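Here is one record:
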Amino acid sequence: MKPLARPSRLAPGARVAVVAPSGPVREERLQSGLDLLRGWGLDPVVAPHVLDRHGEFDYLAGTDADRAADFQAAWCDPEVDAVLCARGGYGVQRMVDLLDWDALRAAGPKVFVGYSDITALHEAFAVRLGLATLHGPMVSAVDFLKNARAQEHLRATLFDPESVRVIHTAAGSMLVPGRARGVVLGGCLAILATERGTRHARSGARGGLLMIEDVGESAYRIDRDLTQLLRTGWLDGVAGITLGSWERCGPYEELRAVFADRLGGLGVPVVEEFGFGHCDGALTIPFGVAAELDADAGTLTLEEPALR
């Protein structure tokens, strides 16, 4: 696994497009998020269908075609320096095949930020565009709007990425000791498992430092997804694993037992409770960048800044 092309960092005055590729967005939260971005000196523009609701499926922000059109128009706009997701939920897997990947590639590298269901787009950007992306807070998500640490870590990553080359959290702890080097990848565990076999997803995590998290999944479902990745050989050759947040996934002692059982036999370092994903103060994690994981110290050290 090789490092991916890194887009340029942002500067005050940069235009950032806000899109909703997945679930419906609350207008009041969107406005609060836009105010935060303006406070950073950015110029946010909202895609036309961000506040839409699908006529039949209330878990979608508008039709698949409209969500895809918004995303493509934002990415292909030469005046836009970054595309930020308003929220996750569900829906990316319904619209990703509608995107014109040749046109997206021709538009050149830009900053892309999102997490949760947006994992499917992180995978697609890596496979189809060879582009590094940011697994980080979304514009209308409560954990971003209400938490200063999440805000500051994303802001530093966007504007001053040298200052956050060492990523760590006080709560992180070693599950399996050791150090490993590789290219960072990952996201929401359920999405990674269900993306297997699609043309937009990697064939495996060999040579990678895998970062995984999820929300609202019971221990047996997490076991099922990890087992799927093991049985299909997707985890063969993975260099190291970092576990993020598991909000509303049941007692953590049950989850820890699953992680130890399913991942402990891989013979690679594993860090738990690293503080990214669906949690307060979520850290921004760059995907596609080479790094070193030190499980004993609970650190992820990037070989280069997340953005150029």
Residues 67 and 255 are 35 Å apart (CA to CA). The chain has a mean pLDDT of 97. The two ends are 20 Å apart (CA to CA). The longest helix spans residues 27-39.
